[in-house]
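Journal club side-thread
Mid-discussion, someone asked how the predicted structure for our own chain would compare to the paper's figures. Pasting it here so we can look after the session.
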Amino acid sequence: MRARIHLDPRTKLVLIAAMAVAVALAPNPSCEMVLMTAAFVFSAALGRIGVGAAMLVAYAAAITVGDVLPYLDSVAARTTLGSFLMLVRKVLPCSLMAWATVTTTGVNELMSALARLRAPRGLTIPLAVTMRYAPAVREDWAFIRDAMRMRGISPGPVSLLASPGRTIDCVYVPLLMSASRVSDELSMAAIARGIENPVARTCYLRIAMRPVDWFMLALGLCAVAGAVVCRVCGAMA
């Protein structure tokens, strides 16, 4: 699904940072739910409705499970499960926005935007390779998984526990070899395309801040300000 709105990569990165700050400052689940809804709207605006809806359901499930914590008899279970659910509530909004950003931003577009921010090449080059590396490995993993299932070998935990040696030899060893091959190919392709060229990069896509970018940045600042206000009000109550 294509993005419904086109945002500058710099805007997306700033919004992810703003969401991380707002979620960290959110004092209660109600404020966190508002931020999660904002993350879902962001992903839907970029055309990632399916993943956003799935994470929104997972977030609602985490809140629902958290409601039964007071009924647990074990203090250790309440503490452990409560900490885990809090981590899930804090991570999901940022993860959703990061997923929507990665899947809707081209590598060339991201590198051009970071170059305009004068980001060091030690940051932009590994980031660009990582964005190309993960999809390639995921594609090879799908091929290996389908091939092994045709031979009656499942890559799941049940098969790993039932016959660990066979599963490792037939599934995970080919995956590691494929991952190593992909890393070598990406490195050679990046060098061949002049990724280390010190000349300023160009991009055939327009990299510029539009009115919608400034509007989204304003919303991000409002989210941070709202989290701060909620935290201050909660401390004074």
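Post-session note: Residues 75-104 form the longest helix (30 residues).
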